[in-house]
Amino acid sequence: MSAQINYLSFLDFATSIIGLNNSEIYNRNVVSRSYYAMYHCILNEFGPFKKIPKKGVHQQLAINLSRLNVKEADEKKLKRLLYTLENERNKRIIADYKLDSQLNELDAKQSIATANKFISKVKSIKDNIQEN
């Protein structure tokens, strides 16, 4: 990864194009880039992770996060984050592959809001882990 590109780069790009052109392709790109901001945030804050044979990258992420040594409260927060990430991944799949489905500006704005909250929660959990 380039030193100039990080997970916030994905979110910054998504934010910069929202509402720029009320076109579905823009909305699809916002949803997709917002998801990747969340995905790379987790990798950045908690990785690098051990590769697990015969598992997709998203399954590997979930398994590796479940192996982190965290307090029970943070474990529950991580599970909620994984649930959020999976929901946004499903939206990203629609954005990238399901051209017969429509994504509007509200969907795009929700993805940006979700990504912002997600990143804040990841940082909060990371801070709790470092304090202990």
UniProtKB/TrEMBL annotation:
Q: What is this protein called?
A: HEPN domain-containing protein
- Tell me what organism the protein belongs to: Thorsellia anophelis DSM 18579
